[in-house]
Amino acid sequence: MNDLHKSMKYSLIFGFGGAVLLPLLYEVYANMSRGFALFLLVCWVVFAGIKFSLLKFRDAMLGIAACVAYSGILGFICYVVIHPAAVRFIGSNSVYFQLSLEEQMWFVLYAALILLCMFVVCFVKYGICAAVRHIRGNNEKAASYIEDAFKDDDSK
Predict the structure, then answer these.
(1) Could you give the angle at the alpha carbon of 43 between the alpha carbons of 22 and 70, nearest 5°?
(2) What percentage of the chain's residues is helix, strand, coil (to nearest 5)?
(3) pTM attached to this predicted model
(4) What CA–CA distance (Å, rounded) separates 88 from 39?
(5) Rounded distance, CA 112 to CA 110, Å?
(6) Given its phi and psi angles, is residue 151 left (phi above 0), alpha (psi -120 to 50 degrees) or beta?
(7) Which residue of 71, 91, 94, 152 shows the fewest CB atoms closer than 10 Å?
(8) pLDDT in tens, the chain (156 residues)
(9) Which of 104, 125, 107 has its CA nearest to residue 115?
(10) Measuring CA to CA, which residue among 116, 118, 130 is closest to residue 50?
(11) 23: Cβ contacts below 8 Å, ≥ 6 apart
């Protein structure tokens, strides 16, 4: 399987997973702990970003863009199904806390920015790999320069 196929497979897996995860994390954000919900979202994004970064750069960027689109668009659709069920479940066992419209928009903004951090995770990983390759290449060049400097040249 080539990298483009893997990229599309990952985008479907992480996109559909994110579509279900986002509404669930919204309920955690609203009724349990805002920090914990955002932490779980960051963990998911870092994991997905690392999986995508194992692919070629172009294929990874395409897959991440598709993943973010799937997660965002399908997340709203899943919210329509998950939210009423969560309200009934939490309302029957405890008090359900409904967020104001402003607080809901803050969650959507946080989630969108965190999802876009998948690109950042890939850029960081590719940057670190490029720096390591550059440093290794410089080490080999430095070793050859040192060898050449100390060679005894008797041809004079």
Answers:
(1) 40
(2) 85, 0, 15
(3) 0.80
(4) 25
(5) 6
(6) beta
(7) 152
(8) 788 899 999 999 999 999 999 999 999 999 889 999 999 999 999 999 999 999 999 999 999 999 999 998 999 999 999 889 888 888 888 888 888 999 999 999 999 999 999 999 999 999 998 888 888 877 777 777 777 777 766 555
(9) 107
(10) 118
(11) 75, 78, 79, 81, 82, 83, 86
| Residues constituting the chain | 156
Both tokens assigned to 37: 């919900």
Amino acid identity for residue 122 in this structure: C
Residue with tokens 């668009």: 73
